[in-house]
Here is the input.
Amino acid sequence: MKDGPFDRPDSRFNTLKGWTWIGCYGGYYLQSDLLHEQGFEHGFFTRLWQGRGPDQLAGYISAGISVHRPQQIHSGIVLKASDARQDPWPEADGLVSDRGGQSLWVCGADCTPVLIADPGTGHAAACHAGWRGVAAGILITALDRLVERGARREDLVIALGPAVSGPCYQVGQEVMQAVSAALPGGTSLSKTGAVIADEQPGRHRLDIRTAAKLQLMGAGIAGERIAHCPLCTICEPELFHSWRRDQVKAVQWSGIVAQAPCSS
Here is the structure.
């Protein structure tokens, strides 16, 4: 194993329930056991891979795959992977595979990287879901695109990767209203633990990953089929870039590989 800046993460991260650090020559990346058990190659990479983009990272999770990524704009736009295969990358925040052997990539620095796998067809999706993405229903759109390709919602498995945690994410009333409006009817952010009190008037602490999970569950995904990474990008500066913490434009990448064969 290579020594130096790509060493194993601190030992306190070795027992993340439902998550496993995968070692390779280049370093370590995080996998969801839920997706791995279904045979989907994927990885949530850290800031320790700084300077390596999807073209290089793809080789660490699989061989002989094509690379697809969007130019992210905090939207609800989801494209088929074949439309996002070369620079200039198309503006979007989600991709859905349309054939096997495609690796789908999104990046983030506090927003949630969401990887979705369909064991039935082999198709996959990757989304960049901050509060704007959740409010725009990007995850619901991705689910719909997978269903169009033959998936059954109840069979999908989903991993919500490292992102800002609720206690560290202060937002205003307008964000709360936008996210609340995108949840299933009657779902309360406060009663479900997605929001905690903030001492500053008119401000709230929002757990955007919990809000995303509530939205997915409202769309027919069972809670046990959604893996929620406990790591916070703000709280772990050695592992993750964070826009809110550092005010620096730097990101970490997450990707998943569609299985072959896939039928479109």
Q: What stands out?
A: Residues 194 and 207 are 5 Å apart (CA to CA).
